[in-house]
Amino acid sequence: MAARSTKRQDSECSTAPLAEEVYERKGSCASHCALVVLCSVLTVVCAGLCAGLAVMWVYLGQQLEDLRNAYEKLELTGLGGEQVNITAAVDEAVRLFLEDEQKADRTHVGPPLQTGWSSGSSKPMAHLTGNPRQNIKKHHGEVKLRSWESEQGLATLANGMKYRGGNIVIPADGLYYIYSQLSYRFLNENPFENPKEDANIFQLIHYTYKQSSYPEPQMIMKSSRSTCWSKRTEFGLYTSFQGGVFRLEKGDKVSVSVSNPQMICFEESSSFFGAFMI
């Protein structure tokens, strides 16, 4: 009896580890199969999303291309009943606008001001320079300078400012800085002839005028000097500059007058006249 009982215990002890090993193998196989299935499902989902995005991209590209072609072919009926292509009409309008801008830049009058214009980056301005080609006769009294250069060289007119007959014409109400410079040059053709005679005495007077609705122009600046040059002096130089801020109205005219205009050096960098809104 004791020997039989011992054999049964040995048999039960030998079969227990085998059952545990089979159970562990079944659990590992099930986990592996689940992981494979999950990866397969994710792969299918990603492939589906990529395919959907690709199809949507192609569809949107085709729609944009169709819209572009439709816009280029779109035509409207003009006033005369003819068909007008929008793209061609826009291109032609841009071309005409650029041509008009180039023509305006070549003229000596600035472009007109817009309605209600007050101030900004495009303020009226004018800078006139001396014209060496003008022939001024000898004159001791007051003479209005009428031959300023307004187009060539350093001269500039912009943003509605105009020049007419020696006058700067103001295009809009506002405060303006007005300035002018005159360079006088005395030349003695015979410095050693009759040295005992009296010296050359000149009154050099420089005026700036404003003309508005009043019948007579109003003097707004003046500078003067009596200059005495010896008979033995070959040449003499003198420069007069004026500048000031004035309230002007649309249509006002500003001009410069001088005495002894035949003595003025009309080089563009020596004598000039201008105004600009501030």
Highlighted features:
tumor necrosis factor receptor binding; 2 helices; TNF; alpha+beta; Jelly Rolls; 278 residues; cell membrane; five-stranded antiparallel β-sheet; six-stranded antiparallel β-sheet; signal-anchor
Q: Stretches where pLDDT falls below 50 for ≥5 residues?
A: 105-111, 113-120
**Residue share in helices?**
25-40%
Question: What is the string of helix and strand elements?
Answer: HEEHEEEEEEEEEEE
Strand count, sense and barrel status of the largest sheet are: 6 strands, antiparallel
Number of contiguous helices: 2
- What Rg, in angstroms, do the CA atoms define? 48 Å
How many angstroms separate the termini? 131 Å
Given this structure, which CATH class of the largest domain is correct?
Answer: Mainly Beta
**Strand residue percentage:** 25-35%
Query: What CATH architecture label of the largest domain applies?
Result: Sandwich
Which geometry do the CA atoms define?
Answer: rod-shaped
The fold-level CATH name of the largest domain is Jelly Rolls
The number of distinct β-strands equals 13
The structure class reads: alpha+beta
Mean pLDDT over the residues: 76
State the domain count. Answer: 3
List the helices and strands and how they pair.
Blueprint: H1 2-73, E1 75-77, E2 83-85, H2 86-106, E3 125-129, E4 142-144, E5 156-158, E6 162-164, E7 167-169, E8 174-187, E9 200-211, E10 218-229, E11 235-248, E12 253-259, E13 272-277
Antiparallel strand pairs: 1-2, 3-5, 3-13, 4-12, 6-7, 7-12, 8-11, 8-13, 9-10, 9-12
